[in-house]
Amino acid sequence: MKSLQCDAPHSLTLVERARPDDVPGQVRLRIAAIGICGTDYHIYGGNQPFLEYPRVMGHELSAYALTDSTDGRITKGDLVVVNPYLSCGLCRACTNGKPNCCENIAVLGVHTDGGMCEEITVPEDNLYAAKDLTPQAAAMVEFLAIGAHGVRRSALVSGGSALIVGAGPIGVGAALFAHIAGAHVTLRDTSADRLALAGKIVPAASVELVSDAGTDVFDTVFDATGNINAMNAGLNFVAHGGAYVLLSVVKGDLNFADPEFHKRETTLFASRNALKVDFEHVMDCMAKGLVPVDDICTHRTTLEGALNDLPKWAQDRGTVVKALIELAQ
Predict the structure, then answer these.
(1) CATH number, domain 2-139+292-326
(2) What are the pLDDT digits (tens) for 212-222?
(3) H-run or E-run covering 176
(4) Which of 73, 106, 229, 244 is the most buried (most CB within 10 A)?
(5) In 10 A of CB 131, how many CB atoms?
(6) The domain 147-270: what is its CATH number?
């Protein structure tokens, strides 16, 4: 089968690999569509820590089942969304119902080969039926679930104000689901192009260039910048009694002024990956027409086309919300 492989930083090849064997407790899948994530761009650019090359990337996946699951939830031919977080099921986080932050987590396409290929096998518990979705929409569920997870953790109140700093894909997802939850949403970014794209996806949101941003404070602030300086500055925008949610994960130290943090009685949340309930919420909102999937998917290509397109988009991410690799069905 064809697989798109990152052999080393800035080196992609289309290689032939053996199709996967059937594995007890797993479902063999025919990949339908793959979302290209910031992590994939980082792997291509050589900026992803703790990664071994060569690597088949791809963790934002929709696929068709080629075998049945043992529990009867998935039958051959079903379109499924893949939860790419492979948890151990044994650590404290897993036994406490938080496999998204498993102590031994492995992510498809990062710690193990992923879905930029024609077929893959995945544990059946990591598959969710996507009966009412297109393959393209189903491939976008995972990255949107990250924003939805952060919104749910924040306990955001309908009618409250929410600031999302960073209008990349994760920030757009957080803004969208904050809006769906009933918040008055403001998006800030350093890029006018990203804000223009985000404004089409969340038309009810206010958009502000960072250079023009005022001094307003918000009930809930979400950081999706991936910039430690922005993360440290975000506390300044949290209202007294408000919450600060960190969607970004970066190297560096968080530094807050403790008197200011306590004066505001700030609630600080780290938000990592997503849970089944978040995937299901995203899929339900998509099925209800609350997610403008056509506006979110700004670019499309094939496995063969990605050899040229992925490097090009990696250099011009300001005009890309979500790019999909689509496989012939």
Answers:
(1) 3.90.180.10
(2) 877 899 999 99
(3) helix 169-180
(4) 244
(5) 10
(6) 3.40.50.720
